[in-house]
Amino acid sequence: MSTPKVKVALADHSDRNRLPKADFRSCAVLAVYKVAALVPPLLPPFRFFFDLAQLNPKSQGFCLNVVGMMINGEISVLAGLNDGDGKDSVKFSIERENRHSKRLGFDEFAQAIARIAVAQICEGLGFQSFQQSALDSLADVGVRYIREIGKVASSYANLGNRSECNVFDVIQGLEVLNSVQGFSGFSDVAHSLSGSGVVRDIVRYVGKAEEIPFAYLIPDFPVVKERKLNPSFAETGESPPDDHIPSWLPKYPNPETYLNLDSKNEKEVKITVDKEVQEVENQREVERPLMNLQQKLICNGSELGFEQRAAESNPFLAPPLRPEEKEVSLPILSFKLLDEAVGHHQNHVIDENHVSRANEVATNGTCEDEDKCKILSNGRPNIHFKFRNGKKNLGRMETSPRVECIEKLSLWFGDGYDGKDEKKRILWQNMEYPPELPHL
Amino acid sequence: MNGQSSHQQQNDGRHDDDAALTDFLASLMDYTPTIPDELVEHYLAKSGFQCPDVRLTRLVAVATQKFIADVATDALHQCKARQSSIIKDKRDKQQKDKRLILTMEDLSKALGEYGVNVKHQEYYADSPSAGLDPASRDD
């Protein structure tokens, strides 16, 4: 069941932020879960979201997305949910990582430089400020202008059977681009390029305009990494092992790296193929319920030496307890909530059950040794749920805004408070004139 | 005879033009355009333009700079014209509106003259206080 690809990747990238990307995107839930079990700091949040995904089909998409982002390193690994403040830490780390993972897009450096240059030109003309969108558009238009000149000039050079451009190609390009505006001498078909009106305009502009050098020093870009090739036979002075191999080809790698593999080759291929087939089957089983999945993982987890060793040092890595093996305090629901839930929505109750089950699993799931359990369970406060009914009652629509406001007020006074009495009392207090109620 | 002299004249003119062009290109060696060479080279290389001559790069840079400056000047005029019309209406807001801000509205009008049709993105939210003084932003 274990996926060899994943294991190799983890061996290479022990740093969680550098987990390989493309492989995992398409990975099945099971495989992802497996990875989660292998990487110690990922475990609690992973488990939480997986349990949530399994128990609540509505939130499944979101939870799996979160897990995918965790694997890609887009979200940092959470501090753990046992501080009782899981939700906040989730949110925080997503925000923080979004800022970090904002990578420079393609060509963004050049665009930024163009923006600065255009801003400088505008400043020189007398503009004091700009809208960001206007500056972006003008910079973009300027960049397109450069590229268009280059395109036309190189096509004229190619027309003249040259690969390198010269001044006249560039001037022709400028003429093409300025033909929308027109320039002096444009009507003359046979005008000389060197005396073109475009060039004269530019000369005039250069003479007139203030010279504003660019504000920053720019390194040469784009940076092209030089590839380091393996030395060829000729370079190392060796002669190729066979006559048919020319000496300019790269030489063979060290013989130790490939000689020993021959004998096992067929077997290993078969094993890996089997594993891959199994992996595909596992992917199909993704939608099975969580408990089934977890039991399988428990069986598999014990096979791995790596996990066992890690489990001794890390309580998160220990195989999870089975349900009812350990007593855990149930989440305490407020009475009001219970009443409301029974009274109003059947769905509500189901949702609560889901969440509480998810939490049970999360609490159950992580410890093996007794004392470690204590540390964990002691560090975790009881979970209190506070729900509020988001939907308004139909009856409320007919009440006046003032009463509604007071109703909101009454929420501040806790669960056992009788809202109606309070409502009336505040109503009387706040009104300058006594209300037109029959019993007053 | 006549034809020959005119031909001569044309030739002279052409020589003058050539000399002027050569001089201009040579003067570009000392001139640093606002648009940096590296940027122009980068984009020219992308469009298939091949030339090791710095003077040509500078020529393109200067031409682009002129183009942008022309567009920006037009936008500046639009901006000033708009402001003067507003000031006629509301003299009390004079101080606040006097800042010259490059806005998308002016820019799209100016670019329209050059054959570039740009419209302000309909749902693009530039912050309304963009370009204003930090002091006036609080008002």
UniProtKB/TrEMBL annotation, chain A:
Keywords: Nucleus, Transcription, Transcription regulation. Residues 107-183 form the Bromodomain associated domain. PANTHER family: TRANSCRIPTION INITIATION FACTOR TFIID SUBUNIT 8 (PTHR46338). SMART domains: BTP. One of its GO terms (cellular component) is transcription factor TFIID complex. Belongs to the TAF8 family. GO terms for molecular function: protein heterodimerization activity. CDD domains: TAF8 (cd08049). It is found in: Nucleus. It comes from Buddleja alternifolia. It holds the Pfam family Bromo_TP. This is Transcription initiation factor TFIID subunit 8. It comes from the Eukaryota. The keyword Transcription applies.
From TrEMBL, chain B:
One of its GO terms (cellular component) is SAGA complex. GO terms for molecular function: promoter-specific chromatin binding; RNA polymerase II general transcription initiation factor activity. Keywords: Nucleus, Transcription, Transcription regulation. GO terms for biological process: transcription initiation at RNA polymerase II promoter. The keyword Transcription applies. It holds the Pfam family TAF10. It is found in: Nucleus. Its main location: nucleus. Transmembrane segments: none annotated. TAFs are components of the transcription factor IID (TFIID) complex that is essential for mediating regulation of RNA polymerase transcription. Belongs to the TAF10 family. This is Transcription initiation factor TFIID subunit 10. It comes from Buddleja alternifolia.
